[in-house]
Amino acid sequence: MPGRPDLSVPAWETGPGPAAPPVRQREPAVAHAEGSAGPASRLLPLGSGLVLIGLGLGLALFALRLRRSQRAQQAG
User: What predicted TM-score, i.e. pTM, was given to this entire model?
Assistant: First the structure.
């Protein structure tokens, strides 16, 4: 029938959709020197943050214990 759209093909297949944004290539953040042994690691390993937190807490607890023991020696 003239004037009626063809319903056998879904509308999303018939027309061009919105244009996708162009994909940009990422440039490496670290310039590699010639003759380097391998790719430079830009990120710390996954567990290093937890290790640093643990070391900080351990140092804080050690400092508190040292402070308490010095107070006990001065008082007694």
Answer: 0.40
pLDDT band at 17 (very low <50, low <70, confident <90, very high): low
| Residue 17 CB neighbours (<10 A) | 7
Cα 43 from chain centre:
9
Provide DSSP, 22-60: PPPPPPPSSPPPTT-SSPPP-S--TTHHHHHHHHHHHHH
Q: How far apart are CA 41 and CA 9, in angstroms?
A: 51
Do residues 29 and 39 lie in contact, with contact meaning Cβ atoms separated by under 8 Å?
Answer: no
